[in-house]
Amino acid sequence: MLELRDHDLDLEGLDDRRGALSRLHRDHRFRHVGDDCDAHRAPLARGRAGPRELVAALLFQRPLYGESKARYRNDVATLLPFDWHPLVLSVIAAAAVAHYFLVNSPRQRRLGLYALLALLVVTMWPIGDLAASVSLTIATVQRLVIMLAVAPLLLLSIPTSALGRFTRPAPVDFIVRKLTHPGLALVVVTVVGTATLAAPVVDWGARSTLGRDLILLVVLLVGMLLWLPALAIMPGTHHLSPAARAGYIFASALVVTSLSFVWIFSHHPLYPALHHQYALLHMTPLFDQQLAGFVAKLGCYLPMWWVAFVIFFDAEKKGTPIEETPLHWADVERELLRIDRQRAKAIRHHRPT
Known about the structure:
Blueprint: H1 14-26, H2 38-45, H3 51-59, H4 69-79, H5 86-102, H6 106-123, H7 127-133, H8 136-156, H9 160-166, H10 170-179, H11 182-195, H12 199-207, H13 209-231, H14 242-255, H15 260-265, H16 277-281, H17 285-318, H18 329-350
Helix pairs in contact: 5-6, 6-8, 7-8, 8-13, 8-17, 11-13, 12-13, 13-14, 14-17
């Protein structure tokens, strides 16, 4: 096996190699590297580069003589400054306090605490800032946590009586009953979820703190809508059988990740507002985008399909007919309320003037 040593390198040819590095730096495929290649060119100019260091510099995979931790901390402090995000922090804290005093069940209190802690982790620094303006992969992980963990846990942490009071007004009842239909829910989730990942929307969230917070709120609401037909907890809505719920969740995983194919097979970055991927994460923008596509697929398929199988086989284990639609007293009360409203409306329409 041939081993290269430092003295085997022709130092007189370093000028040509520096020129090659400069051309690579100017090439549009390496514009995202920015000034990071200065760390590679300086040792070359001093004539101190060995073969291994030269290869590392040419491939832009690691700095010559190792990356300085102090320099990386300085890059993080400059490119990703710490931010408390007081609005998000105050909203989550207020929600935690209100949930604790309004919910009496210890189990539902724990579910609400888990949901809010997960939301806090993925929206605060550094994950929230990386997702907003740096990495599409981190943004995908953030959205998966919000939609597949925070949203269902929050729904399960709210008592049925509270859901009944919230949806009791006729306009709210009408909207909720329509949106919880599985077909319409999938369409709305797919359209709105895809819209939040459009390049102009992502650019707006990267530039504006208000835009970032509004996008995250929409993602949370979309996640709740995604799980409403599957959890069958909303009073007065059509509840699916265990088999139908499992099938809905299985199909949802296929539909809501359709945009990931575009990320995987795209030949150029689609989000110009996301930057500094190489300086902070050592990934090119294109690789970050392609990785986000695979993360979206696997991160959605595995948990949702697992939940679908659990719902299906748990119903069989408990002896519940997998094709039987469950009915609860809250649903009966809501149907009686609707009948009373229809009767009152008919009386008003036929009242003589």
